[in-house]
Design a protein that fits this description.
It holds the Pfam family Peptidase_S41. It contains 12 helices and 21 strands. It is α+β, with helices and mostly antiparallel strands. The strands form 4 sheets. Strands 5, 7, 8, 9, 10, 11 and 12 form a 7-stranded antiparallel beta sheet that branches. Strands 1-13-14-15-18-19 form a 6-stranded mixed beta sheet. Strands 4, 6, 16, 17, 20 and 21 form a 6-stranded antiparallel beta sheet that branches.
């Protein structure tokens, strides 16, 4: 039985797929309009430490407020995946009440070229997961690099940028790289909702989550309709969104071009509540294609689902596909992740959870920062409890990467699927984006993903169970002998 990509149903079409950049964890509390002061680790003198500025980019809003960093695609630049630029202004402190749309951002303080290079060095020194990409990396060797690159005066800003590029290149990690101010701006400011806003999760005084407008496109749909920077989003089409993630609500806001969505916002921290009707502008694209196939003997129907990439629509459209296929009599499912380069990791994790029992592990994250050390588990029952959907085959090849590998190993290691095809690409690193003091930035590898069976994906890939599609009896026999890992 083969699975060409013809005669496929398309799930309903809402918003443009997006591949947000990796996010970072919060280091220090910040003033709303100033970069935080960061202290270098390891071997800096006290004078070196005094006024070194580092701002970890808060991309939870654009990336759907994930609680961990995202994988960068090995095949597309993050800047290329960005949509229209949004104006991103640091959110106001919760204790103040006035119209934050009228605030102006304070210009950044000046910084010497040498201090800028040392700032980039500090980021790597504090966060870089060297053993994930280079066994020869060590803090001592990195200190020597600092001394080599800063042994003489740096006359121009462009020269400082060149020094940072060379310094990062010496790490031997293709994913740790320098971003010019223009590249950083493109990466950090773009629309993922379809109405021209970026959302950020903000805890209130009671520990509950509320959603604030962190970035807004000037003269975009939401801005033209009356939404302002710092507004709190209360509902979408009458559905209360308090306590929901920015990722879920961004998906709720998306839809076909020129359709309308009604949102309720509270202006500022103590301003009036307003219901606003906003017209969407982005063209929706589903990544999910599916159809029902008959086996050669005609007795068994197979649901075939191809996911081209993981974007904000992947989970929703996969649920639509699964419902349709099950209602149509599918006995089991073949999930095709061939040539799926990844995309939004959180979307991949949500897809994996559809097949897992509550408490089963999706993946582990490992890094130097304690905030990166996490076990990500399914938090609800699987989409379908019928055993018919228990038997799943996942098709993979050498271009199955990043989020796709997380999905494949989550289903495989929890005995929900067999893998069929070729060894996968092997991209399991986590990058964070850091803003430097002059508006440039650095992308740094800070962690990696590990499968539920504690296998390091990066550089290794995942070996399939079968090179070709097995018979259903072989799949059942394989899964009957499968040992699941301990939960959590």
């Amino acid at each position: 039985m083969s699975f060409p990509l013809s005669r496929c149903h398309r799930s309903p079409q809402p918003p443009l797929p997006f591949r947000p950049p990796p996010i970072t964890t919060k280091r220090t509390p910040t003033s709303p309009f100033h970069r935080p002061k960061a202290v270098a680790s390891v071997s800096s003198s006290s004078s070196d430490k005094s006024w070194r500025c580092l701002h970890k980019l808060l991309l939870q809003a654009t990336a759907g407020a994930l609680s961990f960093s995202l994988l960068a695609s090995p095949f597309r630049s993050l800047a290329e995946a960005a949509g229209p630029p949004a104006v991103q202004i640091p959110p106001p402190p919760s204790e103040l009440c006035h119209d934050w749309a009228e605030e102006e951002e304070v210009p950044p303080e000046s910084i010497t070229n040498e201090a800028l290079v040392e700032e980039a060095w500090d980021v790597v020194n504090e966060s870089f997961l060297g053993d994930a990409v280079s066994r020869s990396w060590s803090p001592e060797k990195w200190l020597k690099k600092k001394q080599d690159f800063l042994h003489k005066s740096i006359q121009t800003r462009s020269r400082a940028h060149n020094v940072i590029q060379k310094m990062l290149a010496s790490l031997g990690d293709p994913y740790t790289r320098f971003l010019s101010p223009s590249e950083f701006s493109k990466m950090s400011k773009y629309d993922v909702t379809g109405i021209g806003i970026n959302l950020r999760e903000v805890p209130d005084d009671n520990g509950a989550v509320k959603l604030k407008v962190l970035g807004i496109i000037l003269d975009g749909p939401a801005h033209s309709a009356g939404v302002r920077q710092g507004d709190e989003l209360l509902s979408v089409n009458g559905v209360n969104v308090r306590g929901r993630s920015a990722f879920d609500v961004s998906s709720m806001l998306q839809g076909p071009k020129e359709t309308f969505v009604t949102i309720e916002v509270k202006h500022g921290n103590c301003g009036p509540i307003q219901s606003i009707k906003v017209q969407r502008q982005l063209v929706a694209r589903t990544p999910v294609f599916y159809r029902l196939e008959k086996m050669e003997n005609g007795d068994v129907s197979v649901g075939y689902i191809h996911i081209k990439e993981f974007n904000a629509l992947a989970k929703r459209d996969l649920v639509i596909a699964l419902k349709h296929l099950l209602d149509s009599g599918a006995s089991y499912v073949v999930l095709d992740l061939r040539d799926n380069l990844g995309g939004l990791v959180q979307a991949g994790i949500e897809v994996a959870k559809l097949f897992l029992k509550k408490g089963e592990t999706v993946t582990y994250t490992v890094g130097r920062d304690p905030h990166i050390q996490k076990s990500i588990v399914a938090d609800a029952a699987p989409f379908a409890t019928t055993p018919l959907i228990f038997v799943v085959q996942v098709l993979v090849n050498k271009r199955t990467a990043s989020a796709s590998e997380i999905v494949a190993t989550a289903l495989h290691d929890n005995c929900k699927a067999v893998l069929v095809g070729e060894r996968t690409y092997g991209k399991g690193l986590i990058q964070s984006v850091f803003e430097l003091h002059d508006g440039s930035g650095v992308v740094v590898t800070i962690g990696k993903y590990v499968t539920p069976n504690h296998m390091d994906i990066n550089g290794n890939g995942v070996e399939p169970d079968f090179p070709r599609l097995p018979a259903l009896s072989e799949v059942r026999n394989y899964l009957s002998h499968c040992q699941t890992p301990l939960m959590g």
